[in-house]
TrEMBL record:
Family: Belongs to the MHC class I family.
Keyword set includes GTP-binding: no
Organism domain of life: Eukaryota
Lineage of the species this protein comes from: Eukaryota, Metazoa, Chordata, Craniata, Vertebrata
PROSITE patterns: IG_LIKE
Name of the protein in its database record: Ig-like domain-containing protein
Signal sequence annotation: none
Cellular component GO terms, alphabetical: external side of plasma membrane; extracellular space
Any Gene Ontology biological process: immune response
KW Glycoprotein (keyword) present: yes
InterPro entries, sorted: Ig-like_dom, Ig-like_dom_sf, Ig-like_fold, Ig_C1-set, MHC_class-I_related, MHC_I-like_Ag-recog, MHC_I-like_Ag-recog_sf, MHC_I/II-like_Ag-recog
Amino acid sequence: EPWCVGLLRQLMSIIHTLRIFETSSSQVPNFPEYVVVGVLNDLEILRCDGETRRNKPKQEWMNRVTEDDPLFWIWTTQLCVNYLQRSKGNIENIKQLLNQTEGAHIWQWMFGCDWDDETDDITGYVQCAFDGEDFISLDPSTESWVAAKSEAVFTKMRWERSGQIQRYKHYIHKVCNVGLKNFVRYGEKTLRRTELPLVSLLQKSSSSPVTCHATGFYPDRARLFWTKDGDELLEDVDPGEILPNEDATFQTSVTLDLSSVPSKDWDRYHCVFQVSGDKKKYSANPEVLYPMCQMIDGPNDSPPPCPPQTPPKPKFLPVSCLRSQPSQHGLIGILLQPDDIPYFRRLPPGFGATLTMEGENMVYSDSVSPTSPGI
């Protein structure tokens, strides 16, 4: 077939993932002794724990599972109860094996699979960890268990004698080949959606690095990076991880050190957001962006309020006001309501933005520019 057709198929194919996380704990305060969570494409879809002893859907569309399997929630609840009893023995056995019978401990088991919806290829995997360190995993290609440490060799030999590999091969076929595909079908509207982020530029002081923060995007197949004169920068940048938000979207950030760059050259630098798989073209420019609020130093000053107008849709725009707020993921920029006035150091003068297409990628570009309007 023509190379361009093959390339198009590669761009349009999506890898769907299903992961079942089972966690057992011993003497860990304020943490359940047993919990199982099912995650589809980084979205929690089901949950069962030792307190409720019931498997429950975490997404409304997961109730459709009974269309294909009317007893799904019954038999998976029974599995949860059975695994709860087994997990207590597992964590005690591993504590004895490692001679760590005292203190708090956590045993984690993860079963999962990846499905390419274009080629229909499915890859399954099983991994186990104790106290956050790899312990043993399944290699499907060789149909053998791989011990991550010497203490796991005994477990490897015992599991291989007991036929655990055939059991997991059955799981991969049934859960992945049937369950994963059905789950994707139920949640297709949610899973195939594209949400573009709110992007903000954040600087603690005039000499601090500039952080570009993007939040609220979906899916997580995205990149955020800095460019100079259109070329991606690899030096003086500090990229962050892609982290989940509570609303099933994602956030990320990338920091650039501009301390040695004259302010007159700042318009050569852009923060670029890319997400694959959307063919629509979007653009935004300074004339349609929400203007920045005036930001000044000191809690005794009163900056003017944020403008009351509603930003045009789609909302490909920088955050109107920024506040310095500590969080578990560090310092981030947040969107404030018009009556929620921030006290923060003024950002450098102005920025513009565009959101266009580069091949199959949407590209959001947010640039600092001494000449662009907005402040």
